[in-house]
Design goal:
This protein is mostly beta strands. The protein contains no helices and eleven strands. β7 and β8 form a beta hairpin.
Length: 112
Amino acid sequence: EVQLVESGGGLVQPGGSLRLSCAASGFVFSSSEMSWVRQAPGKELEWVSTINAGGTGTYYARSVKGRFTISRDNAKNTLYLQLNSLKTEDTAMYYCRWDGVRGQGTQVTVSS
């Protein structure tokens, strides 16, 4: 059974940072491209970032490029997303995604 368990979200002030984690199981993580997506209240699901299986290729939405960093630890079957210089518009539920499957998400709220 595929499981994706996100953690690390929280309430942070504008300009702050968070590090999200996604623990993966039930598939060959080290051979899999992984992504982060997010959904703000009342808005559609938005792609945020993707990393290739080896971690050598990373891709970002224009809205987060230069502020967010995706990474992975294949030995730990874990995906990460470092969020820096957070803005109020980054407030959303963040999900990791593999092959169309998402976890339960972790809430990021940016507010003063």
